[in-house]
Batch of 4 targets.
Target 1
Amino acid sequence: MTQQEEIQKLVDKVKEFEKNEKTDLSSGEDLSVAIMNLISIEEHLFFTGSKTGNKEYLDILLQIRDMRKELLKKYPDISKFRSDFKLTDAMFEDLIAFGEKKGVPRDSAGLAVSSELIKVQLTALLARDLWNTDAYWQVINDINPFYIKAMESLKNDTFERMKIAEK
């Protein structure tokens, strides 16, 4: 089956689903997973492409799926991803250039302050997209000062010294 036929099959399924109008997000799937899936970029591209008839949205969708497959081959689990993945300056610059092409002006002062935080946030979002919300937190907590302090407190017996440790 060609990619175009696969896309058409998916479009037909969506149209059939719309006709039935019977939805129960709690059956067979966790509601939080359903919500995450509904707001993901893939669904947005698919539905926008279907609604507008613009094939470019579906082409981008297929590119994203191919990228995801490649990333999952290279990083089969969150541990490998956390240890080996790096959102490079070149990748970040490509994203900024993309935004500029779409009319979002570069904020050099803001980027000077926030670029490292944005890179970690993007990496965490990528981890969530590849795996789940737990993967997101595994990445983002590396810069979360509250999490870092809590882990330090657990490791250095702070709670025992304060006599508030649970026994």
Note: Residues 1-74 form one domain.
Target 2
Amino acid sequence: MDIGRAVAEGAVQQLNDFLWTRSAPERFASVICSYYDPRTSTLRYVNAGHLPPMLVHREVNGTFSVQRLEDGGPVLGVLPGSSYGQGEVAVGPGDLLVMFSDGITEAENTSGEDFGETRLLEAICNNWDASTRKLCDAVLVALSSFLGDLDPQDDQTLVIVRLQPSLNELASDDLLGIGRLQRLGQGSTELVCQ
């Protein structure tokens, strides 16, 4: 048995049961649990009811392919005893793992139009060679521009990770790009990239 699989699946199952017993019936949470093995270029993950993260790959001819990471199970804290399965995907050099909250893709502009996955992917693909920190900036700037003067109606969280066959091949600013658009009150927002 794959020890990592047992740990990941078991941890998510235990968290689900813990939330079921400790939170109000109307409360739930989604989570992504993932780990990457650079020796085998394999990403393993459990998706517990979250919007599917995307693994974005640039082909040799410059086109992009997207694989949604859907394997896992239901949101946490709703169904006691739920089981969660681990997914596994092969990763190419420089592929991007993109994780985001629905506050990114479901953000609406003044016309009631969603920002959507298409705009999210356009911002990433148009800035592909940038560091993950700059990719995050590009998405959040595009989102802010899309919203105009509107305040975000939901949390907006974005994580972008560039995966490599060996951790030695990563640049220090490619380890992790995390960003979020924070509401500061009275109509102002702050773009945070850590």
Note: The longest strand covers residues 177-185.
Target 3
Amino acid sequence: MIKKHISIISCLLFCMYIQVYSQSVSQNSTSDIDLIKKRVVSNLIAQNINEKHIESIVNTIKPNGTWPDINYEDVSREGFQHSDHYDNMVAMAVAYNKKGSQFYKSRKIKNAITSSLRNWVENDYICDNWWYNEIGTPSSLVNLMLLIGNELPKELVDGAQLIIKRAHVDGPGARPGGDRIKITVYFGLIGFFVKFGAK
């Protein structure tokens, strides 16, 4: 599943990010970054998708961009089914970009992604557990932006970027070790996305 690949992809992103930005800016820097972005997106798209699951979440999404099987009221540490919401968004974005999938470049999928992201941006769901606010949600939104950000309304991309920026190294969750590395990756990637776009 998509969650299992986050750590691997994050480490890959971190290494490539450092490699690019440790070099002096040259005429080839933009093409280097485009190449990195293509590789990152390729890794995301390479994940297997469950087409029955995709069909289900596309067909059951409500007009307000929510799903009927998710409890949006419970933001406790033990609850926060909202993670299923952003998992659905990323899963749809992978299917949307996966050649050979019945959902490849599907307008219905794109509309569902737009509707669900609009709901998240407008409600800005915050969990009592810092991990979701500083790692879980930002990492999923980074992946979403890399996959389909260039096709989404600007106001939603701008709103998502504000949420992603909660992954910062001075936050309470940025403890030495793995958590700080992950947050550094996502914090760097939002600058990466903003500066060079999600082509």
Note: The radius of gyration is 16 Å.
Target 4
Amino acid sequence: MVLILGVLVLSGLIISLSFLTKDSEENHIQKIVKQYDLLRKSIIKTFKEKGELPSSLMEVNNISELKLSYPFKLDKNGKFILLKIEKESLAKGVLENVSDLSYYEKPMLYLSIYGKSNINEPIVEIRVSPDDITTTSHIKYSYKEVSKDNHNIIEEVWQGNKDCFPSAGDYEVTLKVKNSQNIWSDEAKKIVTVTEEPGIKKIISSSKILFIVYNNGQLKYQAFSTNKLKLPVTDEFTIYDSLEGVLDISMNYDHALVQINDRTIKAAGSNGYGQLALNTKIDKPNFTKIWGLENVKSVQTGDKISAAMTKGGLYLWGKNDEKQIAFTTQVYYDMPQKFNQLKDVKEYSVGKDHILFKTKSGKIFAQGCNDYGQLGNGYSDNVLEIQEVLLLNAKIIHAGDEFSFAVNEEGKLYGWGKNNYYQLGMQGARVKTPMIINNLEDIIYITSSEKIIVVVTEKGEIYTWGTYISGTEAIDFINPHVVKGADSVKGITICDNKIFVLTIDDELFVADHHLELEKLEIR
């Protein structure tokens, strides 16, 4: 006859132990508590080394050396060690010897990894977003408090937590926190893997300089004539060595704003009206950081005026002689001014000396110079308050050199303002209210210089009109003409009286007044 005192059923992960004597039950309690304590210490050690809790026993350092004889498991978050026990007295005996955070829900015993007493030392886990980080990503850091000691975190010490990384690689980020008991945590670690995003992001230009912005934050330029950035005139593209992590650049006239991938701004060039926001009117050929503007979403420049959309709203600064910035008697602002004329600005477009605003409802408003009717209010007089453009809802707006454009919800193009170089694709010196332009439809992009307009349709067709200058000759295109020679347009800009087109294959093409695109080599 065989007397069964107890059965340890490992295959079912259940400790039945229904017939244990008091002595044998106590023995199992001591063994469970001892093995649990060894296991939880290994879990905490693994967390401190790797920066995150293991989700299975296989991820625990040196698990085989523990020689566990009970079928422990981990919950999916790694905070509890699980053990199935049918006998309540056995489970309660274990609970009397472990953390107050542990509990029993028959048949599962939940053993906290924090030991017998409530842990006072805080334990945190670093969180990073986005999941896939490239050299153009804006990285956000946070942490999750793994321990539950009911003491608030009152201080954080981060190291290596850069908003962006300009080159690919693995970067270590560390964090220590202090709780309200003035107890510091061990150092949590996280490896941030950054990959390089290849290819060209966009092309942008002023009348004198063509810029290429790469996805990895590199900036190249080709200067066609002397300029306020004092870049040398070249016949090939040159890397802008002093800038890295570039997301965007705007330079319509003689000063430039650069958006960096940490969502800050740098400025350079002409500064006679404070358009560089450096609290001075001295020109700066080298890019200098603008302090006070963070979480920047976009930047634009006009003639001596600047704009930046941030997470907190739109800011304007620079020349104000035509009320481009604010309706005051101040001639210029050398520091960013919060735009408060409208509360729901979704988009903006900066022209030479006027600005268009589009609200979330699609309405268009304008302020600044109105000598040619570029504010679209039916007049050519200067105004003392922001003007609503006489046009129904728009999906695209574009402020140019004393003229304006908008595309309505049906994709039709409207223009108004100065027209002495046929910028509006029609006869006449100026137009004070929005007029439809030659029945062009499905417009998705607009760009312009002082005398030339270029648009792109949904089908990838490129149209241009205005006046091209070739030497001393002016070539007029009163009506829109097709530009041939490139498919799948990714970006387009105008520089040095030429059209530059970037395709989705990152090939660059150029066309003059003959309107035939030819491929350029980018070295």
Note: Residues 20 and 130 are 54 Å apart (CA to CA).
